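Hey,
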Amino acid sequence: LQGIIQAYKSGITLQGNTTSLGRWDYSGSFFFSISAITTIGYGNLSPSTAVGRIFCIVFALFGIPLNLVLLNEIGQLMLLGVQHCARRLEQVFHWQNKASFLMKTCALVTGLLLFLLLPPLLFSEKEGWSYEEGIYYSFITLSTIGFGDYVIGMNPDRTYPGWYKNVISLWILFGMAWLALVIKFCINILE
């Protein structure tokens, strides 16, 4: 029994009479990398060897700052897109303040749909979670709280497509950039 527990902690999952590297295959490793550099840290998977831990430290030392630069750039591109659309609306319809407000509202609603309201439908299908659990997971992940009570792709009774963790990893990156803009907007309102 101790051997099975140790194997599970090492990322090996039992599937009937076969075993799978499950969490350390390509998509699982990619997802681990994203959760490390975004500082989400679910706590469900970690390096178990001294070399792996040292590599993780070096990877995080360079990966976290690079990720912050990437998230900032993604956020700035999103903001530039909203500002460009607002300027076009002002030119076409001769709206001054209405265009900016309309575009900010559209960006907020689009982000809510793409990052908080639609992904729980995918999580419900692939993970078997309720819609509310999916919303909870979405916010806890994108805000980098990462409690680890819900983590995608961890149910040994389910089969996950190869693209699943990769798509969720990209969703995390873009969703974090969007949520950072929303939080910055809230800070501006509060100040």
